[in-house]
Amino acid sequence: MSTAAASCSNARYNTPVNFDFTEHEESFRKEVRAWLERNVPDDLRGRAFAASRADREEVRKLRAWQKRMHEAGFVGMDWPREFGGRGASIVEQVILYQEMARAESPQLVNRGGLSMLGPTLMKHGTREQQARFLPRILTADDLWCQGFSEPNAGSDLANLQTRAVLDGDQFVINGQKVWTSMAHVADWCFLLVRTNPDVPKHKGISFILVDMKSPGITVRPLRQMTGEAEFNEVFFDNVRVPAENLVGRPNEGWSVAITTLAYERDLLTFIRHISLRNALQRLLGLVRERGAAHDPVVRQKIASLWIGEQALKLNGYRSLTKILRGGQPGPEGSTSKLFWSQLDQDLARVATEVIGPYAQIAHGSAWAPDEGQWEFYALLAQASGIRAGTSEILRNILGERVLGLPKD
Ligand SMILES: Cc1cc2nc3c(=O)[nH]c(=O)nc-3n(C[C@H](O)[C@H](O)[C@H](O)COP(=O)(O)OP(=O)(O)OC[C@H]3O[C@@H](n4cnc5c(N)ncnc54)[C@H](O)[C@@H]3O)c2cc1C
């Protein structure tokens, strides 16, 4: 996007977004571009659109990268100053994301902490919780995982059965979570537990912060078809957690969780968009290298992906504008997640077609384009329509809560 005026109007909220950049913003862009050029580590640059989050060494590098970005003032740009953020304008935040994509920088590793738990604590946490946890989310000193799903509670999350019973000034937790991404490397977990089994299911849930080093926690990796184990089963066997780690009021965790999920579908998708853009740029490079840039069918497919990427970006700006102006993400944030997952899968499919059989060669072979990221991406993208709410559930939400269609 250049300084040529482009504006988008959000009819629902009547909040026009003006994309003309001021001198100050252009100078911020120069600053961030120069900084990224000097600082994105070579071993992460351009290798990160389908980055592993399972490998401990890779996670260590990504943690160090977030810390470095934080020291330079580029993490939590959208967080208010009182919480250690920069209180930046939407435009500055957008410029940062654009420049991260341009520099082929990876996303920030503590994304669950930054875009889900952080905003949740700002809204529902105590001052002590905010002071204790928020700064360490920004620096990635505490890496967070999300303990929501259970074997019988995925789409029907309120069905969760992991129990927490208050014993003096501690909760005692027993039960099992599943699909917990990064639990094997996380320091902390934001967990949903049942604190009252005798009331309707949405009314007996609490939101608790759990130190992953607590005695009684067992993390068992689940191997995915990528060959990696990014997510895990997590077992809780009489795990004792201080009562002060409860977020919000006891048994009112469902409304806390709704805040977290709305941010997951809205802001987090915007962050994921950096990887998608990285992949699209790389794919363009491959199309040119392989002489396919004049093939009308390939051109059509690439143009369609490009248009999709632009639409996703503009919808992301709309959400970010609303949030930075003091609003909350709402059910309409589900459009971003749904659309992102479709685009992600389309991109993986088109890349596989363009690259041909080489797309199946995995990391480690000299024949693998982009060090095997395409093979990994094609497999990983299968999960995009499941994680953070399946596409069917998102369509239900959009139908019922945004479009007002009848429930049945
Ligand atoms: C890569 C990945 C990472 C994940 N990371 C985490 C994590 O870190 N933390 C965490 O808590 N969870 C995580 N999850 C879990 C994820 O949130 C759940 O997989 C998801 O909510 C779906 O739940 P489920 O797997 O139990 O499927 P189910 O809910 O059993 O659904 C099975 C199928 O039925 C469909 N379905 C179910 N109900 C309806 C309905 N009412 N209407 C129409 N269709 C319906 C679904 O769309 C799906 O196709 C992750 C999942 C993946 C794939």
Helix/strand-derived category reads alpha+beta
Number of helices, where a helix is a run of at least 4 consecutive DSSP H or I residues: 10
Radius of gyration: 21 Å
% residues in beta strands: 5-15%
Sheet with most strands: 4 strands, mixed
Order of helices and strands: EEHHHHHEEEEEEEEHHHHH
Adjacency order of strands in the biggest sheet: 3-6-7-10
* Ions and ligands: flavin-adenine dinucleotide
Count of beta strands: 10
Portion of residues within helices: 40-55%
Poorly predicted spans: 1-13
Which of globular, elongated, flat, extended, rod-shaped describes the shape?
globular
Can you give the mean pLDDT? 90
Question: What does this 3D model show about the protein?
Answer:
The structure is a single chain. By secondary structure, this protein is of the alpha+beta class. It has ten helices and ten strands. It has helices spanning about 25-40, 55-70, 90-100, 110-125, 125-140, 255-290, 295-325, 335-355, 375-380, 390-400; strands at about 5-10, 15-20, 145, 165, 170-180, 190-195, 205-210, 215-220, 230-240, 245. The strands form three sheets. A four-stranded mixed β-sheet has the order 3-6-7-10. The structure holds flavin-adenine dinucleotide. Flavin-adenine dinucleotide binds near residues 147, 154, 386 and 392.
Relevant terms:
408 residues; 10 helices; four-stranded mixed β-sheet; four-stranded antiparallel β-sheet; 10 strands; alpha+beta; single chain; binds flavin-adenine dinucleotide
